[in-house]
TrEMBL record:
This is histidine kinase. The lineage of its organism: Bacteria, Bacillati, Actinomycetota, Actinomycetes, Micrococcales. The keyword ATP-binding applies. Residues 1-70 are annotated as: Disordered. GO terms for molecular function: ATP binding; phosphorelay sensor kinase activity; protein dimerization activity. It is an enzyme of class 2 (transferase). It comes from the Bacteria. InterPro entries: HATPase_C_sf, Sensor_HK_TwoCompSys, Sig_transdc_His_kin_sub3_dim/P.
Length: 462
């Protein structure tokens, strides 16, 4: 016998509320207003006659720590994405710093310390942009302006936007475009263009360099914004699909519970009708009943009749507009041989083993029949031709139903995949009687369904 896999419970969607912050102790009370001092003299004589009662101290609202109304919860994927961005930007910053410092000192004639400072500002803005976007934007703009001023005496190399600055600014805008709203990156791009725009009027080479740097960085920022929007749309679609799947699961569960309730209506109504008939005929069948006993039997009959009426009304609420009324009685364990024969005609060999002295009526018998029916339907749909073994027996006070099928001998139909009501119905029927259902794949490629139904909870009779 292969081990049974317990169905994993779904995590609850509800989250625990965050408790409010405790009041800050030791805050001095608010001083009395000056207008209150005018009435202190008149109330002094009254206060001498009776003792003062200490009022509960209420801390000032200014002493309360500020808490965000909606705290932002960062998912594991977002945290991992930020970590990768920080590592990437740090490596790129180190590379740019090692290249731009000697480049600024040798080609542009900038003092070594000044070259190190401006290069550190431009390159260091990259890792800072992951957590502090506005600080990174200001630091990058300051580094570009400082380098343009210090390298204004150079003749020949690209100026005021050297190649390293274009790469650094483009990378900065890509990070801002991917991680933050587009306004942050746009303001950063505008700030870099504005601080270096006056140098475009120096000569034609500076103007061409200015246009090239602004165009390249704008293109990089535009691509990053498009990628971020696509990523955002993908996340929203994933959330909507997960929400739709959850809603679909809830709808299937409600539909299955309604169907079970409609099926069990006949069982409950049959018991109520027996109570009604026995209570109504008791005065005629039993001789020597007192008037009090006759009145009590009459009240029992009235209560049973009212319960039957309410059951019919409840059934009308549960039945949808396109659901036909069921007139046939609900099946029990006696109908299992007929069910097995119908499944064998569908091409699935079934070996049926039903113990003796089993309850032939009641909720447990009906639930056991429906569980076997659902399991055999799954075998026909998902494992065509698989030999199947069905056993129903008693263990102590429990009715144990086991359906084992071997591996399929034919390929399932193309439309066999997908979530149906079978396993949901098995779970609900077992839970209705206070039992449990277990199901799972076997190591040999087959499948097993095992349900335990307490007999004492439904009043079934053997």
């Amino acid at each position: 016998m292969a081990p049974i896999q317990q169905p994993t419970p779904r995590p609850s969607d509800a989250s625990a509320p965050v408790p409010p912050a405790p009041p800050a102790p030791g805050v001095p009370p608010r001083p009395a207003a000056s207008a209150a001092s005018a009435t202190s003299a008149t109330s002094a004589t009254k206060s001498k006659s009776k003792p003062k009662q200490a009022k509960p101290h209420r801390p000032r609202s200014a002493a309360m720590p500020a808490m965000p109304a909606n705290p932002v919860h960062i998912t594991d994927d977002e945290r991992q994405f930020r970590a990768w961005m920080w590592v990437t930007t740090s490596l790129l910053a180190i590379t740019l710093l090692s290249v731009s410092v000697p480049l600024a000192a040798t080609i542009y004639g900038v003092h070594l310390l000044a070259a190190f400072g401006t290069s550190l500002a431009v390159a260091g803005a990259l890792p800072l942009s992951v957590r502090l976007p506005w600080v990174a934007a200001g630091l990058s703009a300051a580094g570009l302006l400082s380098f343009a001023l210090l390298a204004s005496g150079s003749d020949g190399p690209p100026w005021p936007w050297p190649v390293t600055s274009i790469i650094a600014q483009g990378a900065l805008l890509i990070v801002l475009g991917l991680m933050f709203e587009w306004r942050v990156g746009f303001i950063t791009w505008v700030a870099a263009v504005v601080v270096t725009f006056p140098f475009a009027f120096v000569d034609a080479g500076a103007a061409a360099n200015m246009v090239t740097g602004a165009a390249v960085t704008a293109l990089a920022f535009s691509i990053a914004v498009l990628v971020a929007q696509r990523r955002l749309i993908g996340v929203e679609l994933f959330r909507e699909r997960a929400h739709s799947a959850s809603e679909q699961q809830r709808r299937l569960l409600v539909e299955e519970r309604n169907r079970i309730a409609r099926e069990l209506h006949d069982v409950v109504a049959h018991g109520l009708s027996i109570i009604h008939v026995q209570a109504t005929s008791a005065p005629y069948r039993v001789e020597g009943l007192s008037e009090g006993a006759k009145t009590e039997f009459a009240e029992i009959a009235v209560s049973a009749r009212a319960a039957m009426t309410e059951m019919r009304q409840l059934l009308g609420v549960l039945r949808s507009a396109d659901t036909a009324a069921e007139t046939a009685p609900q099946p029990g364990l006696a109908e299992l041989p007929e069910l097995a024969a119908s499944v064998e005609r569908a091409g699935v060999p079934v070996t049926l083993g039903v113990a003796e002295s089993l309850p032939d009526a009641g909720l447990a018998a009906t639930a056991a029949y429906r569980i076997v029916q659902e399991a055999l339907s799954n075998v026909v749909r998902h494992a065509p031709g698989a030999p199947t073994f069905v056993s129903v027996e008693m263990h102590a006070d429990d009715l144990v139903v086991c359906i084992d099928n071997e591996a399929a001998t034919a390929a399932p139909a193309p439309d066999a995949k997908g979530g149906g009501h079978g396993l949901i119905g098995i779970d609900e029927r077992a839970a209705l009687l206070g039992g449990r259902a277990e199901y799972g794949a076997r190591p040999d490629g087959g499948y097993r369904v095992l349900a335990t139904l307490p007999i004492g909870s439904d009043g079934g009779t053997a």
